[in-house]
Design brief:
The protein has two helices and seven strands, in the order αβββαββββ. Strands 1, 2, 3, 4, 5, 6 and 7 form a seven-stranded mixed β-sheet that branches. A hairpin with a 2-residue loop joins strand 4 and strand 5. The chain starts with 7 loop residues before the first helix and ends in a 5-residue tail after the last strand.
């Protein structure tokens, strides 16, 4: 087993744990790979997605993976931009580049960068994506 760097469940859980610690974020969440119906009452909600861009052997005895953790914020399209922008700032300041979400020996998960794209329309929703670029390293088990 290559360890943490290839364990998308563990990587997703590290991000989810941090996400749930951030005060003031929407409590209605579309978790990746789980059934979800958007609210019909105009509530703000968010969707999380873990994207893995690469898996490779980084050095002798180490593997590396990397990608993005995306949090998409949604609010009624006619509600303006301020609420979604405030929430997106909470996210980008809570996942600071260089911050290590997980460390155990040579296994680690680190935030490389965060970015926000402009709010856009997505059906009846205003949509503001926040991307968190990450890298994970793990020690190979004997025989790998």
């Amino acid at each position: 087993m290559a360890g943490f760097a290839f364990d998308t469940r563990a990587i997703r859980q590290a991000f989810r744990s941090r996400l749930l610690e951030i005060e003031g974020l929407p409590t209605i969440i579309a978790w990746q790979n789980r059934p979800f119906e958007p609210p019909t009452d105009g509530s703000i909600w968010m969707r999380e997605t873990l994207l893995v861009a690469y898996d490779l052997r980084a050095a002798v005895g180490l593997v590396q993976s990397g990608g993005q953790y995306r949090v998409d914020l949604f609010g009624p399209d006619d509600s303006g931009t301020e609420q979604l922008e405030d929430l997106s700032r909470k996210l980008t300041t809570s996942f600071v580049p260089g911050w290590v979400l997980y460390q155990d020996g040579r296994d680690s998960l680190e935030v490389l960068s965060t970015s926000r794209t402009p709010r856009r329309r997505d059906g009846i929703w205003g949509h503001l994506p926040v991307s968190i670029t990450w890298t994970a390293m793990a020690e190979l088990s004997a025989g790998e």
